[in-house]
Amino acid sequence: MNSFSPTEDTIAAIATAVSPGEGSIAVIRISGSLAIEITKSIVHIPGKQDWSTHKVLYGHVTEKDQRIYIDEVLILIMKGPRSFTGEDVVEIHCHGGIIAVQKILERILDIPSVRRAEPGEFSQRAVLNGRISLTQAESISELISARSRKAAELAINGIKGNIQTEIELIRKRLVDQLTEIEARIDFEEDLPILDEKQVQREILSIKHDLNELIDNAKRGSWVRSGLKVALTGKPNVGKSSLMNRLSKQEKAIVTDLPGTTRDLLESEIVVEGIPVTFIDTAGLRETKNIIEKIGISRTRKTLIQADLIMLIFDYSNGWSSEDESILKQLPTNIPLLIVGNKSDLINNDSLEKVPKYILEKEKLVIISAKTGIGENDLINYLLKICGSTKNHGLDIALNERQLDLAKSTMKSLENIDHVFEEKLPWDFWTIDLRQAINFLSELTGDDLTESLLDNIFSKFCIGK
Predict the structure, then answer these.
(1) Where residue 204 sits, what CATH number does that domain have?
(2) What tens digit of pLDDT does each residue of 240-267 get?
(3) Cα Dmax for the chain
(4) Which of 75, 160, 294, 347 is 20 to 30 Å apart from 146, CA to CA?
(5) Same domain, yes or no, for 214 and 232?
(6) What pLDDT sits at residue 199?
(7) What local confidence, expressed as pLDDT, does residue 113 receive?
(8) Has residue 354 got a pLDDT over 80?
(9) 267 & 173 share domain
(10) Do the Cβ atoms of 412 and 432 come closer than 8 Å?
(11) pLDDT value of residue 149
């Protein structure tokens, strides 16, 4: 269990997104032992009111002189432990926009006994007070930032506790094995001989289940963050036209002049629940134009950071030495798809200009950005590259922090293989088992330091 507890400060923050002219209401959240007392001091509510838990009150937030109204509000009262944080919580629902909500927050923060909440501090208190698990808190943050329905589904499953349940089950199985082994160390003469083969089979089964979670994490990352696809090729092969076709928007300027794109243009579509961001880059070529040189420099950086590179060439004019030069400049560690564009202009002479080794490539798609011919083939390839065909069975996915700990757990379990091979004493078996259990405890939040917990929640948004 954690050896630390949340601060006793009462905290406040805006819990909803605010912007001019957007949102009819906004919510300000106050949590802590003084939440109700602070709220009473800033509002005017006519008549006798019941401030007991889970009530909704109507009134006005006032200026300090209590004569000038700032806004008309609803007040939701939730006394601990029946609240999100486990503490006394008050939510003030006011009109949206910026001015009213900011003035109410300022009015609250003028009171010496309350301070502005740090990013993720409400969720952190909920975890420390046992209202939710760490993995549930992380899933709440992922639901807020979800960019597709599938990402939202994964987040909801995490909020339901599915990640926590899965990891705790694996951890319990490891604890069972550790218990059996340690029992032999302490009471070997009083217990039957441990079946080493059975222990080995169980750890192998655990590794299989853990490895499945690790494999799913990559697909989950694509579902959450999306696939970055960089479009490259020589000038005037139709990169901008292709991006406009795929995104169904005229985001890129399309002309017959070479070198039109001199900056990075981005457009996003959602395909089978996966956000796909297309980045239209400046063509890779030698140039004396200073501005175009900057664009090409940015292109090279984008290519290194992409999940997939599309090398586009003019299929109607065939494969050129310039196309070959660009192919040789591309990073070899990034998946590549070659796209022959302008297939609507194809003729017999064009086919002869495309070398056999390009036509026979498995990762080749022929398309016409103008007519849409071949678009479905291109989309299907994108789905294949990001494993979307398997995403229908994807129920949970570890985030980056959880994945690192799962990999560390796997490494500890793989170390036990050497113990098996060397037939070392029981004491050696327990070392890596304990380490694996500790990694899983850190993943679920059962074994965390205060600084690490602060670091996790600092990545959350204010008011969450």
Answers:
(1) 1.20.120.430
(2) 888 888 877 544 333 343 444 444 577 7
(3) 89
(4) 75
(5) no
(6) 84
(7) 92
(8) no
(9) no
(10) yes
(11) 83
CA distance 370 to 356: 25
**Cα gap 106→328, rounded to integer Å:** 59
pLDDT tens digits, one per residue of 446-457: 887 777 788 888
Separation between Cα atoms, residue 435 and residue 247, nearest integer Å: 48
Question: Does residue 209 register a pLDDT over 90?
Answer: yes
- 240 with 381, same domain: the answer is yes
**Do residues 97 and 127 both lie within one domain?**
yes
- Please check whether residues 236 and 286 belong to one and the same domain: yes
pLDDT over threshold 90, residue 441: yes
Residue 416 contacts residue 181 (beta carbons within 8 Å): no
Q: How far is CA 141 from CA 136, 302, 419, 452, in A?
A: 9, 28, 41, 17
Q: Of 353, 385, 417, at which residue does a domain stop? A: 385
Q: Are strands 336-341 and 364-366 parallel, antiparallel or unpaired?
A: parallel
Contact assessment for residue 278 and residue 312, using Cβ atoms and an 8 Å cutoff: no
Q: Which amino acid is at 11?
A: I
Beta strands (DSSP E) in 194-284 are 227-232, 265-271, 274-280
Same domain? For 56 and 116 the reply is yes
Q: Answer with the one of 340, 361, 385 that is the final residue of a domain.
A: 385
d(CA 312, CA 331): 15
Structure-model confidence comparison of residues 185 and 127, the more confident one: 127
Can you give the residue range of the structural domain that contains 183?
159-222+396-444
Handedness of CA 309, 313, 318, 322 (dihedral sign): negative
Q: What is the residue type of 248?
A: K
Q: Cβ atoms within 10 A of the Cβ of 176, count?
A: 11
Average confidence (pLDDT) over 163-183: 91
| Phi and psi at residue 141, to the nearest 5° | -60, -40
pLDDT digits (tens, 9 = 90+) for 268-305: 777 777 788 888 876 655 656 666 666 677 777 888 88
Per the domain annotation, does 146 fall within a domain?
Answer: no
Residue 24 has pLDDT above 70, yes or no: yes
Per the DSSP assignment, residues forming a β-bridge with 22 are 19
The model carries a pTM of: 0.77
Strands 55-62 and 43-44: antiparallel
21: in domain = yes
CB of 442 closer than 8 Å to CB of 453: no
For 372-402, write each residue's pLDDT tens digit.
Answer: 889 888 888 887 776 655 555 678 899 999 9
Contact 445, 135 (CB under 8 A): yes
Residue 199 within any structural domain of the chain: yes
Q: How many CB atoms lie within 10 A of CB 58?
A: 12
Which two tokens mark 270?
Answer: 């959602």
- Burial environment of residue 425 by CB neighbours within 10 A (0 to 12, 13 to 18, 19 or more): exposed
Both 317 and 415 in one domain: the answer is no
Q: What is the mean pLDDT of the chain?
A: 84
Strand partners, 303: none
